[in-house]
């Protein structure tokens, strides 16, 4: 049966199980949009900026485990997707971006809104296509989704000239794909797994470093089995948060620049590091030459390019985390590391990184802790980047698997609002809290219009300190408090929300924090709370740039009249 290219695309998306698309139309993608009403099973959400479409697709993909989809037109529409595509690339998020392109005869002629988007995105996509053949669109779509979700997941872009969308061809959707050059290694090499088991049995001070790969592969049970059988402390990366329950006796928080002091100390003193589904990012390792100086390293990852890239590895294992851990768990024996666990517990008591001082002002940490208390830990938390991200990661306790969605590798301010929108669309029965800074929130604030139009019940907490807070903190600590370009003149966020018909409240008193959160959660639709927090509060602990994990800076206690342990776990 003959169909237009646009119809072939829609039919193919349905076969791939696509339910929702985030996008904005334009001239050269009009044929595809004109076809959408023929396919009511494809829900299209009109965002207000293409960056919002990409981040919403990311949030949807991260929350559901499915492939997120976004549309944009050519030229600026396509380039506006680039930040979200790069974010998805660095954080291994499966999305498929479909962009319109000028008609084939005009390609390379600098036509109106023509841009080489495949060239631009070549370094930040897992693969991309300039589709010139209408008859091959079905195969292209199937390949794109297969590549996006298998192996190490990532973004794939398909660029569609307008005439390819309009032309007709027989529709055929292949049952099988022929990709001879693409063979992800899923099963770890048996001899390497045996070597890893031997090192684990010999270690006296082992530490598991668990990353987002555990979440992607769904290896929650396998990780827990390994940790409990051998009594190994578990430390996560920022993106690995929620891969292991933080109330577990073997959980020691997350490591790195703003990770727990005792987690960094554990890694520094370890004699064995078992790195699982993580890539030794510089924010996690600190100065590489000083990272885990006394430890041998086992590194399990599905992407061979990540092994040995940043940190020397003694036992490399390429494979899917769930598969490798399943085999590894067959070879390990019950063991107790009583003295090592006791030492870590002592460090946790002596270096309490998640204490909140008692004061009359609204501390941002207190707001996050109150959100945790009022949700009982049963929520998806979506953050931007900066201090709001660090406080959310530190002071919300994540027992629920895959419950923190944040921008890691690219560190994208403005990620939070559209990503929370995508997460809520993908998981409509979950409570979704967007924790934003006043700076990042203004970068994608226009998506309030999308949230209002679609009645997406995201709860928004703005930690409003009147600064680009994380950069101000660096200016405070390393640039003699020269606050250049960091103070913000913020609008009245509640009035802006109300202009979009979203209710909200500004909170200026500590006693009103909890009731405002409860009010937000009792609303059936979206709700915004603007928390006026302490302006110059800093995030601690902190590993200074260029320092090792052992050189972690803890919160100064000088002048603090009283400290109160707020850890309820």
Write up this protein.
This protein has 569 residues and is an alpha/beta fold. The protein folds into 3 domains: 2-170, Rossmann fold, CATH 3.40.50; 190-350, TPP-binding domain (Rossmann fold), CATH 3.40.50.1220; 356-539, Rossmann fold. It is built from 23 helices and 22 strands. The strands form 5 sheets. The protein has a 6-stranded parallel β-sheet, sandwiched between helices. Strands 11-10-9-12-13-14 form a 6-stranded parallel β-sheet, with helices on both faces. Strand 12, helix 13 and strand 13 (296-301) form a beta-alpha-beta unit. Helix 9 (190-202) packs across helix 14 and helix 16 (364-375) crosses helix 23. The longest helix is centred in the N-terminal third of the chain and has 15 residues, at 50-64. The radius of gyration is 24 Å and the shape is globular. Mean pLDDT is 96; it is low at 558-569.
Short account of what is shown:
The protein is an alpha/beta fold. It contains 23 helices and 22 strands.
Q: What is the CATH architecture term of the largest domain?
A: 3-Layer(aba) Sandwich
- What structural class should be given to the helix and strand makeup? alpha/beta
Tell me about the biggest sheet?
6 strands, parallel
Helix content: 25-40%
Name the quaternary structure.
single chain
The Rg value, from CA coordinates, equals 24 Å
Overall number of strands: 22
Strand content: 15-25%
Major sheet strand order: 3-2-4-5-7-6
Mean pLDDT: 96
Tell me the CATH topology of the largest domain: Rossmann fold
Number of helices: 23
- Shape designation: globular
Distance between the termini: 61 Å
CATH-assigned homologous superfamily of the largest domain: Thiamin diphosphate (ThDP)-binding fold, Pyr/PP domains
- CATH secondary-structure class of the largest domain: Alpha Beta
- The tally of domains stands at 3
| Low-confidence residue ranges | 558-569
């Amino acid at each position: 049966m003959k169909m237009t290219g646009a119809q072939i695309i829609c039919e193919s998306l349905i076969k791939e199980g696509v339910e929702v698309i985030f996008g904005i139309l334009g001239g050269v993608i009009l044929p595809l949009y004109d076809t959408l009403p023929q396919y009511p099973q494809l829900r299209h959400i009109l965002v207000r900026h293409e960056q919002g479409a990409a981040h919403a697709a990311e949030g949807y993909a991260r929350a559901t485990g499915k492939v997120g989809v976004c549309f944009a037109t050519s030229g600026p529409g396509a380039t506006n997707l680039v930040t979200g595509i790069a974010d998805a690339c660095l954080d291994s998020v499966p999305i498929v971006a479909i962009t319109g392109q000028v008609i084939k005869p005009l390609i390379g002629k600098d036509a109106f809104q023509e841009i080489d988007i495949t060239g631009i995105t070549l370094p930040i996509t897992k693969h991309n296509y300039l589709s010139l053949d209408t008859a091959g669109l079905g195969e292209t779509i199937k390949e794109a989704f297969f590549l996006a979700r298998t192996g190490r997941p990532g973004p794939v872009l398909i660029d569609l000239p307008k005439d390819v969308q309009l032309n007709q061809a027989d529709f055929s959707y292949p049952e099988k794909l022929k990709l001879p050059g693409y063979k992800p290694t899923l099963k770890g090499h048996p001899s390497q797994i045996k070597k890893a088991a031997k090192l684990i049995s010999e270690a006296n001070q082992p530490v598991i470093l668990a990353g987002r790969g555990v979440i992607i592969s769904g290896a929650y049970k396998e990780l827990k089995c390994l940790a409990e059988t051998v009594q190994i402390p578990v430390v996560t990366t920022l993106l690995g948060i929620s891969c292991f329950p933080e109330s577990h006796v073997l959980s020691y928080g997350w490591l790195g620049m703003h990770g727990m002091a005792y987690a960094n100390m554990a890694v520094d003193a370890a004699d064995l590091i078992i790195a699982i589904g993580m890539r030794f990012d510089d924010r996690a390792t600190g100065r590489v030459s000083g990272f885990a100086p006394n430890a041998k390293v086992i590194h399990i990852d599905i992407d061979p390019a990540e092994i040995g890239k940043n940190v020397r590895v003694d036992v490399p294992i390429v494979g899917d985390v769930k598969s490798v851990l399943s085999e590894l768990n067959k070879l390990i024996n019950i063991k107790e590391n009583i003295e090592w666990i006791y030492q870590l517990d002592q460090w946790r008591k002596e270096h309490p990184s998640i204490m909140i001082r008692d004061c009359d002002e609204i501390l941002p940490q207190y707001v996050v802790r109150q959100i945790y208390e009022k949700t009982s830990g049963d929520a998806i938390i979506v953050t931007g980047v900066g201090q709001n991200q660090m406080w959310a990661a530190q002071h919300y306790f994540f027992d629920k698997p895959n419950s923190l969605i944040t921008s890691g590798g690219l560190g994208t301010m403005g990620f939070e609002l559209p990503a929370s929108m995508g997460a809520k669309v993908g998981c409509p029965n979950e409570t979704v809290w967007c924790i934003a800074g006043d700076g990042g929130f203004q970068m994608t604030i226009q998506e309030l219009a999308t949230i209002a139009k679609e009645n997406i019940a995201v709860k928004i907490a703005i930690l409003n300190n009147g600064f680009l807070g994380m950069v101000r903190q660096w200016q405070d600590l390393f640039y003699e408090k020269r606050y250049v370009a960091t103070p913000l003149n913020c609008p009245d966020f509640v009035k802006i929300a109300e202009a979009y018909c979203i209710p909200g409240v500004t909170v200026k008193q500590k006693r009103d924090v909890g009731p405002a959160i409860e009010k937000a959660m009792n609303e059936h639709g979206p709700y915004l709370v603007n928390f006026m927090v302490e302006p110059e509060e800093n995030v601690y602990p902190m590993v200074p740039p260029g320092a090792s994990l052992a050189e972690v800076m803890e919160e100064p206690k000088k002048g603090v009249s009283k400290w109160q342990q707020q850890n309820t776990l």
